[in-house]
Write the structure tokens for this entry.
Amino acid sequence: MERRKFIRNSLMTAGGVLLGSAVAYRFLHEEQPKEYPLPPTIENIHKGKGKNVLVLMSAGTRHGNTDRLTDAYIRGLVKKGHTVTKIYLGSMRMAGCRGCGACQRNGNRCVVQDDMQQLYPLFAQCDTLVMASPLYFWTITARLKAFVERLYAISKEDKYPEKETVLLMTAGDDKENTFDHAQSYFHIISSVLGGHEVGIYCAGGCTGCEKTARNINMKHLENAYRMGLDL
Ligand SMILES: Cc1cc2nc3c(=O)[nH]c(=O)nc-3n(C[C@H](O)[C@H](O)[C@H](O)COP(=O)(O)O)c2cc1C
């Protein structure tokens, strides 16, 4: 009896160790897909004399529709002489807010040690926050939503720093109400940040990731560029 128990326990322990090692091995050797390597996380695009603009590009792929729309907008910003920092949220490891409330007791420091820690100072320094996102299930990406949630850490008595806000979006659909949910969410976030919306551009009718070549109409890129010039 004792011997049977010993053998069973040994087998279970060995199984557990093997499973744990397999998970750890996979985690450590997780390869980036070769077709779409992740872009760098933070790019200092331009240093100018104008505003300090922080661009959060939340699509998971480089040179996709949202990235191209964002770059067109950035070209306008650069031409105008603004300082531009571009963040690839898709390359960052960032969790949503835990709701532990530690930030409110610890001098507005978030205890979650992930890539958001690099973004807090950039957000503090910026004049303008650009939120760029593909439309995912009628709203912004989970990555961008996680960024917004984590701003809770720096709130003081429910007050947030004032920032100008811009929304750039792409979607497959091109209906009258395609961007309604995303836009109404953006309006709320903008009002939390002081109510200084300075631009919304939503590009519908983009060819999505089901096709090898994504496609965004040139007219959207031209319009975004002009919007960048207007900031
Ligand atoms: C997970 C997922 C959800 C999507 N949800 C919608 C949607 O609700 N409405 C829509 O019109 N397009 C939707 N799309 C299409 C993308 O918004 C569209 O192809 C976008 O331009 C892709 O941007 P990207 O090339 O930057 O990734 C979805 C795509 C994915 C991958």
The pocket of flavin mononucleotide is lined by residues 59, 61, 64-67, 134-138, 170-173, 178, 206, 208-209, 214 (CB under 6 Å).
